[in-house]
Design brief:
Order of helices and strands: HHHHHHHEEEHHHHEHHHH
CATH class: Mainly Alpha
Number of helices: 15
CATH topology: ABC transporter involved in vitamin B12 uptake, BtuC
Strand content: under 5%
Helix content: over 70%
Number of strands: 4
Strand order of the largest sheet: 1-4
Structural class: mainly alpha
Largest sheet: 2 strands, antiparallel
CATH architecture: Orthogonal Bundle
Length: about 350
C-alpha cells in the first residue's frame, strides 16, 4: 500500500511535460513534420496528412492498451463511428455548410463516446479483462461492420457514402492540401502532448498500478473500474476524431473504415512503435506506411506476407516494440550516468 503512495508522492514534482526521452522525441517529431510541406508536392502532402490522422488513431489505442495492458480489438468501430457520424451529418441532415463540419464532428465523437460508455460499462464493470476483453471488442467491430453494410438507407451499404465536404469552420474550408495537412498536424500535436502530460502524471501511475495488480489498486481506494471506463471512452473519442477528420479529406466513407482489418492494422502500428510510449504509436504508423509504399511498389501481393513476417519477428525479438526497447535503453543509460556521479 505504501509503495504506490510513495510513487505518487514522488511523481508530483516530476509529472507532466518533463523532458523525458519520449517528450523530446515528440517535440522533434512535430517540428520535423511542421516543415515537411516546404519540401513536398500536393500529392505527397495528402498522403502525409492521412498518416498523421492514422497516427492519431494509433495514439488513441495506445492510450488505453499501452497504459492499462488491456488490448482492444474494436477501435476500428470508434474510428468508423466518427467517419459515419461526419458523413451522415454532412449528407443527410441538410445542415448549413458553414458549420456542418462542427456538427458532424460532434455527432461522430458523441456516437463513439456513447457506444464506448455502454459497452465499456458492461464489460469493465462485469470484470471482463485480458483475452476476454479482446474477444468482446473484436465481436463489437464485426457487429458494427454488419450494421454499416446492412443499414444501406443511412450508411449507403457496401458502396458507402460519397460527397462529404472538406472540413470547414465558419466558412473557412481546409480544402487545400497544405491547410488540411496543418489541421491534422495541429490536432495530432494537441492530443499527443496532452496525453503525454496527463499520462506522465498521477493518472499514468494509477493506470500502471491497475495494469500490474488491479486488486491492490482497489485496496488503496481507487475506483479502478471507473478509471478504466473513462480511459476507454476518451480513447474511443480520439479514435472517432481521427475518423471524422479523415473522411473530410477523402470525401467518402465505406464499411472498410469500420472493419476488422483496420482494427488489426492499428494494433500493428502501435506494436511497431512500442505500446505505452505514446509517441511511438505515431512513429510506428509512419514506419508501417512507408514500408507498405515501398514493398507494394515492387509487388502488391508481397505486402501481406511482409507485414506478417515482420510482425512475427517483432513479437519474438521486441515484445513491446522497437520504440519501447530504445526508450528503455536510454533510461537505463541515464540511470547509470546518474549512479556514477
Amino acid at each position: 500500500m505504501t509503495q504506490l503512495s510513495s510513487l505518487l508522492a514522488a511523481n508530483k514534482t516530476a509529472s507532466g511535460l518533463r523532458f523525458r526521452p519520449a517528450t523530446l522525441i515528440a517535440i522533434l517529431l512535430i517540428l520535423i513534420m511542421s516543415v515537411v510541406p516546404l519540401f513536398s508536392n500536393a500529392y505527397d502532402l495528402t498522403n502525409y496528412r492521412d498518416v498523421l490522422l492514422f497516427g492519431l488513431f494509433a495514439l488513441s489505442l495506445d492510450i488505453f492498451w499501452g497504459r492499462t495492458g488491456i488490448l482492444s480489438f474494436g477501435h476500428a468501430t470508434f474510428f468508423g463511428l466518427g467517419a459515419y457520424g461526419m458523413a451522415v451529418s454532412s449528407i443527410h441532415f441538410g445542415i448549413d455548410p458553414s458549420y456542418v463540419s462542427i456538427v458532424g464532428l460532434l455527432v461522430g465523437i458523441g456516437l463513439a463516446a456513447v457506444v464506448a460508455a455502454l459497452v465499456g460499462y458492461f464489460i469493465l464493470y462485469g470484470g471482463v479483462r485480458g483475452d476476454h476483453f479482446t474477444i468482446v471488442t473484436l465481436a463489437l467491430t464485426i457487429v458494427a461492420n454488419h450494421i454499416a453494410i446492412g443499414w444501406s438507407k443511412v450508411t449507403g451499404g457496401d458502396s458507402g457514402l460519397i460527397g462529404i465536404p472538406p472540413f470547414s469552420i465558419f466558412g473557412f474550408s481546409f480544402y487545400d492540401p497544405m491547410a488540411s495537412y496543418y489541421l491534422a498536424l495541429i490536432v495530432l500535436a494537441i492530443c499527443l502532448f496532452s496525453a503525454i502530460w496527463i499520462l506522465n502524471g498521477r493518472l499514468g501511475l494509477i493506470l500502471s498500478a491497475i495494469r500490474d495488480d488491479e486488486v491492490k489498486a482497489k485496496t488503496l481506494g481507487y475506483d479502478t473500474k471507473l478509471i478504466l471506463l473513462i480511459t476507454f471512452v476518451v480513447s474511443a473519442m480520439l479514435a472517432s476524431l481521427a475518423g471524422a477528420l479523415y473522411v473530410t479529406n477523402t470525401g467518402f466513407v465505406a464499411p472498410d473504415m469500420i472493419a476488422l482489418l483496420l482494427s488489426t492494422e492499428v494494433i500493428i502500428w502501435v506494436a511497431v512503435g512500442g505500446s505505452g510510449t505514446l509517441v511511438g504509436a505515431v512513429i510506428g504508423t509512419a514506419i508501417v506506411w512507408w514500408l507498405q509504399q515501398k514493398i507494394s511498389s515492387i509487388s502488391v501481393t508481397a505486402w501481406p506476407i511482409a507485414i506478417g513476417s515482420f510482425f512475427i519477428m517483432l513479437v519474438l525479438f521486441f515484445p513491446r516494440g522497437p520504440g519501447a526497447f530504445v526508450l528503455e535503453k536510454v533510461k537505463a543509460f541515464q540511470k547509470s550516468r546518474e549512479g556514477n556521479k
